[in-house]
Amino acid sequence: MNFNKISFRVRYAETDQMGVVYHGNYAQYLEMGRIEWLRRFGISYKSMEESGIMLPVVSLHINFKKSALYDDLITVETQLKRTPLVKIEFNYKIYNEKQELLAEANTVLAFLDKHTKRPVKCPDYVLDKIKM
Questions:
Q1: Catalytic-labelled residue, pool 16, 71, 72, 128
Q2: Sequential pLDDT tens for the chain (132 residues)
Q3: CATH number reported for the structural domain that contains residue 67 in this entry
Q4: Which domain holds residue 58?
């Protein structure tokens, strides 16, 4: 299964004066989803970087449906879109505790050699762990 979800509460610092989550924070929520998706397969982003592979975001798209509010328990569902090659693509859905869809999103990240800053193919150890 190439799907994972995490839940957490919206913190006060993530909101504006109306108690609504600032739109820029959603990128961090998506990152949390990705990191936990990788961890579910036994892949540590930290160890990937230590081995010389970086994963910068090259595309980010968010379609907002409804506002997340202070103290909401939100759930980020993260799904791998397809088997990665030089890029890895994720789709996301973010829900509140009432199961109302707050946002749908998509990110594309590129595998880069840390030293040369050049694209590289997805490492075999990642492909082996995430077989779709």
A1: 16
A2: 588 999 999 999 999 999 999 999 999 999 999 999 999 999 999 999 999 999 999 999 999 999 999 999 999 999 999 999 999 999 999 999 999 999 999 999 999 999 999 999 999 999 999 885
A3: 3.10.129.10
A4: 3-130
Q: Which amino acid is at 129?
A: K
Instruction: Give yes or no: 128 in active site.
Output: no
Strands 53-54 and 57-64: unpaired
Task: Return d(Cα 33, Cα 20) in angstroms, integer.
Answer: 20
Helix (H) or strand (E) holding 38: helix 25-40
Q: How many domains does the chain have?
A: 1
Tokens of 49: 């970087």
Model-wide pTM > 0.85: yes
